[in-house]
Amino acid sequence: MYKLGIDIGYSSIKINLLNQKNELIYTNYHIHKTLWKDFLRKEISSLKETFNLSKIYIGITGEQGKFFKDYFINEVLCLSKGAISLNTNIASIMELGAQSARYLKGFEEGNIKNLQVFSNTSCSAGTGSFLEEQVSRLGIDLEDFSKLALKELVGDLGFKYFKTVDNARISKNNDKIYTSTTVAIASKYPIKNLKKVDIDFLALKK
């Protein structure tokens, strides 16, 4: 029996077809621009002509997939079961979508009984809000997290000495918007001293 998996998200649709041996024999990814119904009809029609789909199992997931109640499978279940089928030693999963993102952890040798799921609130701001929401769980703000993340990245490259200068300024009108950046310095040698330099903007204009 063939297995057809369809993921209809906010911005894209993904289609995968497996044969009787669970081998991937067809895959397609398409940015649908809200026209996913027309695309799906064409895809299924084309698959019927190409393959003998007299017997087929269909599973549909994604935010837009909820329209198909008889075939709909929860996204978290799809992610966890699909990942375990490929690797029973999986530790965690992160999924980034157009409007929502999820982080799954708590896998125990292929068992999802103690699975924990973290997700942002779906919104037009996209998955950028996911990072901010998860960072808040650690009790730090996004700027501090950015510094820690960058320190780890440059440390992996051999720059074990890391300093930042000043803090980013936040807009007076919107506390979600930063109006300046932070200067970061990474070095393979100890950073002995940092000194703030005042810029003479009038001199620059000349």
Structure description:
- The mean pLDDT is 84.
- The longest helix has 15 residues, at 36-50.
- The protein has 206 residues and is an alpha+beta fold.
- The chain has helices at residues 36-50, 75-86, 128-136, 142-156, 201-205; strands spanning 2-8, 12-18, 24-31, 56-61, 92-96, 101-105, 116-119, 161-165, 183-187.
Overall radius of gyration: 24 Å
Average pLDDT, rounded to a whole number, is 84
How far apart, in Å, are the first and last alpha carbons?
76 Å
Q: Let me know the number of strands.
A: 9
Share of residues in helices: 25-40%
Secondary structural class: alpha+beta
What is the molecular shape? Answer: elongated
Strand order of the largest sheet: 3-2-1-4
Keywords:
single chain; 206 residues; alpha+beta; three-stranded antiparallel beta sheet; 5 helices; 9 strands; 25% strand; elongated
Concise account of the structure shown:
This protein has helices spanning 36-50, 75-86, 128-136, 142-156, 201-205; strands at 2-8, 12-18, 24-31, 56-61, 92-96, 101-105, 116-119, 161-165, 183-187. By secondary structure, it is of the alpha+beta class.
Secondary structure elements and pairings:
Blueprint: E1 2-8, E2 12-18, E3 24-31, H1 36-50, E4 56-61, H2 75-86, E5 92-96, E6 101-105, E7 116-119, H3 128-136, H4 142-156, E8 161-165, E9 183-187, H5 201-205
Parallel strand pairs: 1-4
Antiparallel strand pairs: 1-2, 2-3, 5-6, 6-7, 8-9
